[in-house]
Amino acid sequence: MKFLIFCSLPRNSGSYVMGKYISKSLAKHHKVDYINSFSRLPFNLYYLASIPIYVLKSLFRKSDYVIVLKPFPAACIAALIQKLYGAKIILDIDDIDYGYTNYLAKITKYIQSLFAKRFDFIFVHNKELMKKVQQDFKISKEKLFLREQGVDLAVFRPIKTTKKNEKKCLIFTGHLNASSYLDEIIKAFKLASAKKNNLRLVIIGDGYKKPAYERMAKKLNIDAKFLGYISDQEMIARHIAYSSAGVVYYPNTIGNKYRCSMKLREYLSMGKPVACNDFGDLKRFKNYTYMSDTGDIKAFSEQILKALFHSDKRELQGMSYVRKNLSWDSVVEDMLKKIKAV
Question: Are residues 36 and 142 in the same domain?
Answer without folding.
Answer: yes
